[in-house]
Design a protein that fits this description.
With 249 residues, the chain is an alpha/beta fold. The chain has one domain (5-12, 20-248): Aldolase class I (TIM Barrel, Alpha-Beta Barrel), CATH 3.20.20. Helix content is 43%, strand content 15%. The protein has 10 helices and 8 strands. It has helices at residues 19-28, 45-52, 78-83, 94-99, 104-116, 129-133, 137-148, 176-201, 212-219, 236-247, and strands spanning 5-9, 35-39, 58-61, 88-91, 120-125, 158-162, 203-207, 226-229. Strands 1-2-3-4-5-6-7-8 form an 8-stranded parallel beta barrel, surrounded by 6 helices. Strand 2, helix 2 and strand 3 (58-61) form a beta-alpha-beta unit. The longest helix is centred in the last third of the chain and has 26 residues, at 176-201. It starts with a strand and ends with a helix. 2-phosphoglycolic acid binds at residues 9, 163, 168-169, 207-210, 228-232.
């Protein structure tokens, strides 16, 4: 009942020269059976949307400001992302939480702005290696979920991405049991807070060193509805391998 979602996060990578990868991606997946999303840098959002439009592949932002407009040099509002063609926005990625000191409260305010403007918020949660080694993973994730997710969330406007910080860009991946434990925990928390109907309809993505070679086994884990992919989304051939694995999961 939940539509699968393969989401690519280009982070601070890519200029106009990279748009060829998106043309290649839309040629490889002209009529996908799952939802595909690409989040390029904001400078490419509009052109990426044009390159992916024929295949019905969506584009999204990597962050937005909580305010609608105003004196916030360098920031982008949710309405601006929507105006540029975005349907989704990634919020509370660990790189934003670390590099920009984003708290759960800040992420929740951004998510409210995104939802108010018709965007689907992909809210990221995840533990550090120290937290996992201290057996604090579920406490940390539970706190991030209650602090970062707004009350107005539904299965349409919210996606949750579990991204262990130690697995991002490192080539290290949790065991399938570890992924399953966290995803089952997130599902239970969402059901408890929002009721079974909404709680069961929110899509849960795994993120952190997903590659074509490990995608199929990760997509076999319960409550994994797709992936948030960094490095392997930069090349059409790699992202395509992940998309194909999700289509056949
Ligand atoms: P990675 O990044 O796939 O390069 O590990 C994932 C992410 O940060 O979303």
């Amino acid at each position: 009942m939940r539509r699968k979602l393969a989401a690519g996060n280009w982070k601070m990578n890519g200029t106009g020269a990279a748009l060829g990868e998106l043309q290649a991606l839309s040629q490889l997946h002209p009529s996908p059976r799952i939802d595909i999303l690409l989040c390029p840098p904001a400078t490419l959002l509009h052109r990426a949307g044009q390159a992916l439009e024929s295949a019905g592949i969506s584009v999204g932002g990597q962050d937005c400001h909580a305010q609608a407009s105003g004196a916030h040099t360098g920031d982008i509002s949710a309405e601006m992302l929507k105006d540029a063609g975005a349907e989704y926005v990634i919020l509370g990625h660990s790189e934003r939480r670390q590099d920009h000191g984003e708290s759960d409260d800040a992420v929740r305010a951004k998510a409210r702005a995104a939802m108010d403007n018709g965007l689907t918020a992909i809210i990221c949660v995840g533990e550090s290696l120290e937290q996992r080694e201290a057996a604090n993973t579920l406490d940390i994730i539970g706190g991030q979920l209650s602090g970062s997710i707004p009350d107005q969330s539904t299965g349409e406007n919210l996606v949750v991405a579990y991204e262990p910080i130690w697995a991002i860009g490192t080539g290290k991946v949790p065991t399938l049991d570890q992924i399953g434990d966290v995803h089952d925990f997130i599902r239970a928390r969402l059901e408890r807070r929002f009721g079974e109907g909404v709680g069961r309809s929110v899509r849960l993505l795994y993120g952190g060193s997903v590659k074509p070679s490990n995608a199929a086994e990760i997509f076999g884990v319960s409550n994994v509805d797709g992936a948030l992919v960094g490095g392997a989304s930069l090349k059409a051939a790699d992202f395509s391998g992940i998309i194909t694995a999700l289509e056949s999961a």
